[in-house]
User: Fold this.
Amino acid sequence: MKWAERFAAFAARKEREAHEAAIYPFTTELDRSDGTLMSIASPWSAAMFDGPFLMSSPPTADRPAASLVFVQSRDGNTVAADPSQLGGGAADTHLIYEGLSRVAADAVLAGAGTVRAGTSVFSVWHPELVALRISLGQPRHPVQVVATRRPVDFARGLIFNVPEVRVVLITVASCAADMRQALAARPWITPIVLNPPDDLTAAFAALRALGIARLSVVGGRTLATSVIDAGLVQDLYMTTTPIAAGEPNTPMYPRPLGGNVILRKRGTGPDAGVVFEHTIHLEPARGSVD
Assistant:
């Protein structure tokens, strides 16, 4: 099967799964929003999320607004062989993670470990949310941003072989050199070379220069820690499930993390016990991990 056919089959499956999912609405437990954040909603999404979805504006003219989107088990673990094992449920998957958190995003950023072989494309799939995204003037799929310190095997990854889906590769000089020929054959992939190799602030400035004003960061833990420590995140969207699951001792962030919780929602029906929180003004604790 050719790459275009693979992508068409993948997209059709994702759209079908989202459309057929039994999504039960959230109910609002806490709302401390003050009207200063961007508000996103359609009649359908507002009914399912119990109100508008909120997001911060870009903090400066040369940096995108960035949000982190994670699900954690009751005991704080965020890593599982299959993320659905963490117990977030259909509303978290189809309404928040693959929906409202990226419906207005220009790009989705993931680390190489999250992308794995590139067999996914991080986009919006529920037809109601696809329509909302289009109504916001966004293209069908966000730009796919992948951060890696190791060469990527482009021949294996769906995400790197669909010309209609733009990709930005954040990497280091040695990797860019190793991937030079593969990149030259894929003009829809734009490399951003870090120098020094941990300068994420410069990477975010480069993303903004490419026209990316709003960025959804979906993992993994190493990338999440790096962007938090660099002060690059404005919004944290965290879903906590009612079950103990995941690999032990795998929190999203390895130290206490403060901030202002402005929204708290609770799942209903089969998702009862699921809690969604939107936190702004993240305040990472400094010092070594215990």
